Amino acid sequence: MVTGGAGYVGSVVTAHLLQAGHEVSVLDDLSTGFREGVPAGAAFIEGRIQDAAAHLDPSFDGVLHFAASSQVGESVVDPEKYWRNNVGGTMDLLAAMRDAGVRRLVFSSTAATYGEPTATPVTEDLPTAPTSPYGASKLAVDHMITGEATAHGLAAVSLRYFNVAGAYGSWGERHDPESHLIPLVLQVAQGRRESISVYGDDYPTPDGTCVRDYLHVADLAEAHLLALAAAEPGTHRICNLGNGNGFSVREVIEAVRKVTGHPVPEVVSARRGGDPAVLVASADRARAELGWTPTRTDLADIIGDAWRFAQDAGE
């Protein structure tokens, strides 16, 4: 079962699972996902994760859990939504899995659990200090899963993503509202947005703008299949996922100009609170314990895939 399989990452992972020969059921309430995003060949169940008990049975051998509220800014003004959906919903899902005897879980966690990291590249042993209810809710779920593994023998892996980008075939990014840099810059190239805001150009980085780690969504999906295979009863692994390279905001904007051939006006604005200068992952643990190596690490290729999807989707 893939919860949230009608969303961006969930749909790409579902496609990879189907291509690897798995039978897949997608559970999604379509609050942020799209019915047409569910890959052909997957069974679709419209519903919430709180209702998973009605759909899980011993024939399932694992759950990949993507369903969550995921807007940092929204979580600050509506924190109860994040505790209810992300924490309460996952608690219900874990109970449903326990009752049905489904004993493998791969959880979509986030680099937001680290808050403003004390070092870079970010390793899994750095302190977790989330700066938003969103990050705090994901960290709470990680703690919940650790307890479930210890007490009830769950085989679990949490994957903490950094910046996911790109597209895979007909599956790509189309959030509403959109908050991620690459699709926002592509909207400027499409003429859907007048300019892109650069929040701060005085950071201690080579060009003064924030540096982030961008991971291709197909590399991310492959990590989930490896995590599913590597999950061990009674063990909760936590692995960061990133390509290990940092790209600045201005490097992303310039790459979009080159890939699309369109002008991208930029407007420098004040820094946003809580934005670290550099946020780059160490994925050494995922390499060692899951056997995962990202292969789509060129920024122009990542943007090129996202650009093709944006044009095909007519967005």
Keywords:
three-stranded mixed β-sheet, seven-stranded parallel β-sheet, 315 residues
Describe the structure.
The protein is of the alpha/beta class. Helix content is 37%, strand content 17%. It is built from nine helices and 14 strands. It has helices spanning 8-19, 72-77, 79-100, 133-152, 181-189, 217-230, 249-260, 284-290, 299-312, and strands spanning 2-3, 25-28, 43-46, 63-65, 104-110, 155-161, 163-165, 196-199, 211-212, 214-216, 236-241, 247-248, 266-269, 278-279. The strands form four sheets. Strands 3-2-1-4-5-6-11 form a seven-stranded parallel beta sheet, with helices on both faces. It has a three-stranded mixed beta sheet with strand order 12-9-14. Helix 1 packs across helix 6 and helix 7 crosses helix 9 (299-312). It starts with a strand and ends with a helix. The model has no long low-confidence stretch (mean pLDDT 95).
Query: How many strands in all?
Result: 14
- Largest sheet, if any? 7 strands, parallel
The residue ranges in which pLDDT falls below 50 over 5 or more consecutive positions are: none
Q: What portion of residues is helical?
A: 25-40%
Physical arrangement of strands within the biggest beta sheet? 3-2-1-4-5-6-11
Radius of gyration: 19 Å
The rough form would be described as: globular
Mean pLDDT: 95
Structural class by sheet pairing and helices: alpha/beta
Order of helices and strands: EHEEEHHEHEEHEEEHEEHEEHH
Q: How many H/I helical runs?
A: 9
N/C terminus separation: 29 Å
Percent of sequence in beta strands: 15-25%
